[in-house]
């Protein structure tokens, strides 16, 4: 009977992750006999002698190809960490990983902020997953009085379910599908997919939902309207551009007689892999016919902007923009959320530090994504709805969380000296969170 003679590391060695994160790549071992033949059904004992990390099971078994697999979660300490695999306590293979210093991954000013108190939002999505992304909030009026949340289900990153949906709340805390409504509000036709819903409370007391369709190498911005937030009219196209020149439209009408404004991200043909994006602004007199876009001066050195949400803050007579970013040179696995402000929507003041980063809650261990916000009437407090994901069984699990804080505290975080964000080499190993067409 053949006897195991060697254990070989096939993949997963020399990776980088942050403390207490799962390594991006699965670790794989192969067991061979003395003649170099594979050894199916062979048990390997695992241990973590350095770093304090953990694996799901301390014993794994080779499959029909002689390969055994495990994921590996880093310990809380920085530096080198090791995983050992043994056969019969004699043959051994060692895998090494590296983590950054915890104070560099999660600076103290972030850990001590109230944003770490964010709690998950429970949503009854039409696909029953509860996973959703791209939240957008609006305070309604007239027959649509209350709070309305547009969002797209995204179970495991499956774009087939990413159809704009509507939720209602009387207190902006507990959300339910409004009585009489059926989600999704709109549904994609093959081969398109939909994303990036954005709500506007219009001057005629209706609620408008803009969203983005991607198909046939085009970005099409569509809009559907409702008087009560329940019954929506047929969607109509308002902007058509080549992919991916219009990502994450955010529409604002500051007052009933004010012009409509739309901010969006131009990611060019590369979409989710764009090394550089541009924020653009369009205007409209009726919300349907839009001007040509003009670039505006929102920029974060070393980071690429991917999605944006803009709100008019009446109590301060200015616009605020919330936007997620990824390290320039990687893909749109976004790791930070920044804020900016403007008196006119054209000239913007940016800040050196993000208001939130990866790990603000454990559900956002690997991605911090498109988010939205709303202030109280006096703009002394702000409530945020964050979206993001963590990698679970080789797929992203998408969640939404909410947190309230003071406006002064929020801008104090943003104004702090720039600190190290999670390293680009780690983020570069994450799979893109978007379909090939890009969001």
Write a structural description.
The protein is mostly beta strands and 439 residues long. The chain folds into 2 domains: 4-100, Immunoglobulin-like (Sandwich); 108-427, Tachylectin-2, Chain A (5 Propeller), CATH 2.115.10. It is 5% helix and 44% strand. It contains 4 helices and 29 strands. It has helices spanning 102-105, 108-111, 407-415, 424-427; strands at residues 4-11, 15-17, 27-33, 43-50, 59-61, 67-70, 79-87, 91-99, 119-120, 132-140, 146-153, 165-169, 193-201, 207-215, 218-226, 236-242, 247-253, 260-266, 278-284, 294-295, 303-313, 318-327, 336-342, 349-350, 356-357, 367-368, 372-375, 381-392, 395-406. The strands form 7 sheets. It has a 5-stranded mixed β-sheet, with no helix packed on it. It is elongated.
Search tags:
29 strands; 439 residues; elongated; Tachylectin-2, Chain A; Immunoglobulin-like; 5-stranded antiparallel sheet
The total of beta strands comes to: 29
CATH architecture group name of the largest domain: 5 Propeller
* Poorly predicted runs: 106-112, 422-428
**What about the largest sheet?**
5 strands, mixed
Cα end-to-end separation: 55 Å
Q: Mean pLDDT across all residues, rounded?
A: 89
CATH superfamily of the largest domain: Glycosyl hydrolase domain, family 43
- State the CATH topology of the largest domain: Tachylectin-2, Chain A
Helix tally equals 4
Domain unit count? 2
Global morphology: elongated
Helix content: under 10%
- The strand order across the widest sheet is 2-8-7-4-5
How do the strands and helices of this protein lay out in sequence?
Layout: E1 4-11, E2 15-17, E3 27-33, E4 43-50, E5 59-61, E6 67-70, E7 79-87, E8 91-99, H1 102-105, H2 108-111, E9 119-120, E10 132-140, E11 146-153, E12 165-169, E13 193-201, E14 207-215, E15 218-226, E16 236-242, E17 247-253, E18 260-266, E19 278-284, E20 294-295, E21 303-313, E22 318-327, E23 336-342, E24 349-350, E25 356-357, E26 367-368, E27 372-375, E28 381-392, E29 395-406, H3 407-415, H4 424-427
Parallel strand pairs: 2-8
Antiparallel strand pairs: 1-3, 3-6, 4-5, 4-7, 7-8, 9-29, 10-11, 11-12, 13-14, 14-15, 15-16, 17-18, 18-19, 19-20, 21-22, 22-23, 23-24, 23-25, 26-28, 27-28, 28-29
């Amino acid at each position: 009977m053949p006897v195991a003679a060697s254990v070989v590391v096939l993949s997963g060695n020399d990776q980088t992750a942050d403390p207490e994160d799962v390594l991006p790549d699965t670790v794989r071992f192969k067991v061979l006999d003395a003649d170099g033949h594979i050894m199916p059904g062979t048990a390997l004992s695992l241990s973590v002698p350095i770093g304090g990390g953990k694996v799901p099971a301390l014993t794994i078994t080779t499959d029909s190809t002689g390969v055994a697999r495990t994921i590996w979660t880093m310990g809380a300490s920085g530096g080198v960490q090791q995983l050992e695999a043994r056969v019969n306590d004699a043959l051994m293979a060692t895998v090494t990983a590296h983590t950054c210093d915890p104070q560099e991954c999660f600076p103290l000013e972030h850990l001590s902020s109230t944003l770490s108190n964010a709690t998950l939002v429970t949503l009854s999505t039409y696909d029953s997953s509860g996973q959703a992304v791209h939240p957008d909030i609006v305070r309604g009026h007239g027959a649509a009085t209350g709070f309305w949340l547009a969002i797209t289900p995204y179970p495991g990153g499956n774009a087939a379910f990413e159809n704009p949906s509507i939720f209602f709340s009387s207190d902006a805390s507990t959300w339910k599908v409004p009585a009489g409504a059926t989600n999704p509000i709109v549904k994609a036709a093959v081969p398109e997919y939909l994303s990036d819903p954005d709500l506007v409370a219009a001057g005629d007391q209706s609620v408008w939902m803009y969203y983005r369709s991607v198909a046939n190498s085009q970005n099409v911005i569509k809009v559907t309207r409702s008087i009560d937030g329940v019954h929506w009219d047929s969607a109509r196209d308002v902007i058509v551009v080549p992919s991916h020149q219009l990502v994450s439209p955010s529409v604002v009408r500051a007052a009933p007689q004010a012009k409509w404004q739309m901010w969006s991200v131009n990611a060019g043909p590369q979409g989710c892999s764009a090394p550089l994006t541009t924020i653009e602004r369009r205007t409209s007199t009726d919300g349907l016919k839009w001007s040509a876009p003009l670039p505006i001066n929102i920029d974060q050195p070393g980071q690429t902007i991917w999605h944006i949400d803009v709100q008019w803050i009446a109590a301060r007579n200015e616009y605020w923009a919330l936007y997620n970013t990824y390290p320039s040179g990687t893909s749109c696995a976004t790791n930070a959320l920044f804020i900016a402000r403007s008196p006119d929507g054209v000239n913007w003041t940016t800040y050196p530090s993000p208001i939130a980063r990866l790990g603000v809650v454990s559900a956002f261990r690997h991605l911090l994504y498109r988010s939205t916000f709303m202030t109280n009437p006096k703009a002394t407090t702000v409530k945020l709805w964050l979206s993001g994901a963590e990698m679970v069984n080789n797929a992203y699990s998408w969640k939404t969380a909410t947190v309230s804080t003071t406006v002064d505290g929020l801008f104090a975080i943003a104004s702090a000296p720039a600190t190290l964000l999670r390293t680009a080499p780690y983020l570069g190993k994450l799979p893109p969170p978007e379909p090939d067409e890009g969001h």
